[in-house]
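Hi support team,

I've been running sequence recovery on a batch of backbones for a student project. Most finish fine, but this one hangs at about 90% for roughly twenty minutes before it completes. I'm not sure whether the input is malformed or the queue is just slow. I've pasted the structure tokens below so you can try to reproduce it. Let me know if you need the job ID as well.

Thanks,
M.K.
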């Protein structure tokens, strides 16, 4: 009797027998750790074709379909396990045995990573988009503002008037550095009767120079310099004997004035810049006034001012009277030249301040007022004018110098009246350093 026949028919206990015999066959796949029905894959054994199916309505489990119970009433065969004949006794016992597989601990479910709010698949968060938009707007604004700062003076340049300031005949050779003649004219041209009264210029015909400044810009890294040539300087005027230097402008205009300066100093003049009464006052008003330290009380009816000593902001008409006045100055024409250089530096300091550059209407007004009131010599370029303006600004700080030609007698009697006499030896040495682009004392 087989072991299956010896089993007590009333015993419902399942029987598990482990066959320790090693038999060749295919290894079973691991037991399904989650339990449940298993699947047995592989071919049927030849001797299984003759085994009766205990229940024709149910698959016997030897194919690819899941089985509920092994042949002969044995234990359930796990789904997904391959057939292994090491655990089959050939049908003698009627029981199919399975190896006991250790159970694996269940893995806790993992939640998917949380996507930042507002971010779609493959897209950066909304906050990153906002930051990029802000950076892009800032860059566009900076580019637009830079273009405005560059284009505005170029547009204003179209309003600049040109004059013939190139002298005839032999001229000094250009050695090093840039040298420009900056002239303040007392011309009333273009001023209405009301403006003449407001600016206290009178209605004198003709034109003279109220200020003559030689602007030196070094190419050797030295400081730039504004050098005043007093308008009463007694010098030779080509073809007109000796006279006050401002007479050259009255006689022959910019051409003769440039020629006179070159012959008296030995310095080649590279460019010419002139501004009149009206243009000067409009430039100051376009800046909203210019602050200056008035060195003493100034009450000058001819200049149209009555100013008290101390720091104050001057309007256009007040500023014009401040730089023109000489009768209330104890130093006379020399004191006036000093105030002119000082005020030119104050204008450029205000023009380069954030109060001007960051206000579009003020920046536009300054550049166009300056252009409309300025005359430049033929051949004088925007780059030349830029060097002049930078030298003016430097003169008010430690980056530039504000000087006057060496004087031996400020009240020298001449046939043309009381004049200013230069110190010949010191003046020649002084202008020689300018010509050679050497440091000035």
């Amino acid at each position: 009797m087989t072991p299956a026949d010896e089993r007590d028919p009333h015993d419902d206990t399942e029987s598990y027998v482990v066959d320790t015999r090693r038999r060749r066959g295919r290894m079973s796949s691991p037991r399904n750790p989650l339990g449940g029905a298993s699947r047995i894959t592989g071919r049927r054994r030849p001797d299984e074709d003759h085994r009766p199916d205990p229940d024709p309505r149910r698959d016997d489990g030897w194919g690819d379909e899941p089985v509920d119970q092994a042949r002969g009433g044995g234990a359930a065969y796990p789904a997904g396990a391959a057939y292994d004949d090491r655990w089959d006794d050939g049908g003698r016992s009627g029981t199919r045995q399975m190896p006991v597989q250790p159970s694996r601990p269940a893995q806790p479910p993992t939640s998917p990573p949380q996507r930042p709010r507002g971010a779609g698949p493959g897209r950066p968060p909304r906050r990153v988009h906002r930051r990029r938009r802000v950076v892009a707007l800032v860059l566009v604004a900076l580019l637009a503002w830079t273009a405005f700062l560059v284009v505005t003076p170029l547009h204003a340049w179209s309003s600049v008037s040109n004059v013939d300031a190139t002298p005839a005949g032999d001229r000094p050779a250009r050695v090093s550095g840039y040298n420009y003649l900056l002239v303040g004219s007392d011309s009333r041209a273009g001023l209405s009767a009301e403006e003449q009264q407001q600016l206290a210029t009178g209605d004198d015909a003709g034109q003279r120079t109220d200020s003559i400044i030689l602007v030196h810009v070094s190419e050797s890294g030295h400081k730039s310099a504004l050098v005043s040539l007093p308008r009463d300087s007694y010098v030779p005027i080509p073809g007109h004997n000796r006279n006050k230097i401002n007479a050259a402008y009255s006689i022959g205009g910019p051409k003769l004035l440039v020629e006179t300066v070159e012959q008296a100093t030995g310095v080649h003049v590279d460019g010419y810049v002139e501004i009149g009464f009206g243009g000067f006052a409009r430039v100051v008003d376009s800046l909203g006034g210019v602050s200056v330290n008035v060195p003493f009380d100034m009450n000058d009816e001819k200049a149209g001012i009555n100013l008290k000593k101390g720091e104050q902001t001057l309007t256009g008409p007040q500023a014009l009277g401040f730089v023109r006045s000489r009768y209330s100055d104890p130093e006379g024409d020399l004191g006036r030249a000093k105030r002119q250089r000082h005020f030119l530096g104050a204008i450029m300091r205000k023009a380069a301040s954030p109060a001007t550059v960051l206000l579009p209407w003020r920046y536009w007004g300054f550049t166009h007022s300056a252009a409309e009131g300025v005359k430049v010599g033929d051949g004088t370029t925007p780059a030349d004018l830029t060097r002049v303006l930078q030298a003016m600004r430097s003169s008010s700080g430690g980056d530039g110098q504000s000087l006057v030609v060496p004087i031996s007698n400020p009240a020298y009697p001449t046939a043309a009246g009381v004049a200013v006499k230069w110190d010949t030896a010191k003046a020649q040495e002084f202008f020689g350093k300018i010509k050679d682009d050497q440091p000035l004392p």
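--
Follow-up from support: It reproduced on our side and the slowdown came from queue contention, not your input. Residues 1-100 form one domain. No action needed from you.
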